[in-house]
Amino acid sequence: MLKYSLKRLASSVITLCIIIVVVFVLLRQMPIEGYFDNFDKLDETQVNAKLAQLGLTQPIHVQLKNFFVKLLHGDLGTSSRYSAGTPITAIIAQKAPISIYMGLMSMALSLLMGVPLGAAMARSRSGFWDKFGTAFIVFINAVPAAVYYIFIQMYGTEWLNISMLFDRNNWVTWILPVFSMSLGGAASYAMWLRRYMVDEMNKDYVRLAVSKGVSRRKIMMKHVFRNAFVPMIQYIPASILYTICGSIYIESLYSVPGMGGLLVDVIGRQDNPMVQALVMIYSCIGIVGLLLGDLLMAVIDPRISFVKKEGAR
Prior knowledge:
This protein is mainly alpha-helical. It has helices spanning 2-27, 44-54, 60-72, 88-123, 128-142, 145-159, 175-201, 204-211, 216-233, 236-244, 248-253, 262-268, 272-300. 25% of the residues are buried.
């Protein structure tokens, strides 16, 4: 297990380093205007002085080395246009907590809705809950998310008398954004859990247990549900981390000052240092999510073996 974990960790670090290098080199091919807040007002001498100050006149390998050195010290640079002169870590520190809280709550709600629904669908195949769950899954996946997000905002604010604008100090204004963010995850968990449970129910050990007179409820909860939930576990860490990043559309719909629309905003403003830092952070989140999912799967599923079998090549 330790050897496998170290190998997966090493491959994840290498992947992240490759992504950072590619993004770093590509952004150096972008127009230099992205490093200046008032480029049009500067003459050539001032531009060259600023580029030298930022280290952009050095060879690309020297710039890359300096970037990694600063990165190891927690320095992501400063914003050039979004909030000129402000450290990027300070900007993220202001926005990340809101997206983290909202993401964790929406993930918890997704699990609370999706897992019981998927189990109920598997237990009552062709019954009410199976038809209801199938209709819910088809609706969530077929209808553009923007459509039902707007309907939730329109009628939710009217029926519940909730303000459309988000206020982090008023917990009531968290309800609709969190609920909206949880729908996609709930549909996904319900769909996959139903599939895995139905697959388990058709296996020989379940038929043997039924023939021995074991109660259907005991079979479902003690064997089928537990075995079906194991394949889903590896996706939960990645889902949590992705959700923590925030939903771009939902955060803009409710004016939530989180991480969701930050990347789009800085790309539009051509703030190259911010784009570089955010792409690296999102890449890191994705890689860490996959890594945690693989490790969690290896810990929970006893069928996974880390010992090479004899005769294996």
